[in-house]
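Table S2 (continued). Query chain:
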Amino acid sequence: MNTTGRPGLTLGLEGRSAVVVGTGPAIGRACAVGLARAGARIACFDRDEAAAKSSADAAQAAGGESTAHVVDVLDRGAVRAAFAEVARLRGGVDVVVDVVGASRWSPSADTSDGDWDDVLALNLRQQWVVAQEALRHMIPAGSGSLVCIASVSGLAASTLHGAYGAAKAGLMSLVRTLAVENGAHGIRVNAVAPGTIDTPARAGDTALAAKVPLRRRGRPEDIGDAAVFLSSAAASYISGHVLVVDGAASVVHPLIALD
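Corresponding output:
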């Protein structure tokens, strides 16, 4: 029971201009749909036109105004133009959730220069570019929220995908720096660090669920809900934070078994 006389939890996202970067059929789409359900107007960025359109349709079905934009986030000019278009259509850019990322698997000793460069570009450099281009609109407005999708792989040893872990660790550092540098402009910057998530790319991997204290893999909606929360007025005093969403997997002591 609320006995304080204050209203309940308010997201404050109604009518806000929100961009979701990387709107494939799992986490990105869940972020777009979650923001749409909260009342935001959604712009779906993806280099795959079909993915952007499908996510925009899903956001529309969830009750939010939405548009699809074909954007290669490795191309700064394309990112800048896409943000300018959203700002023109919606009167600004209030929220950005950047989901883009991918890994390549090999022992670190065998990782090629090309794989290292590609993974760092996709998981870290593009986040830098997206943040910079979003800030072009948020700083003059004196408000905004950036949410970057990181990974628990940036918090611990990332065996067989060391470049990915290094990129995600770098992303968390970037999030903290951007939060400090832009706080005076009324801009909050946070990250979500997912654990194992049941996406199409890793579907059916039931062995992982047994290692999670909650005894299930995460759902894309678990990450979408976390991103919506961090984007919202309910998190108005949270900035520079990495929210781990992994069912408590990362806090298990490796030398002590519960059973």
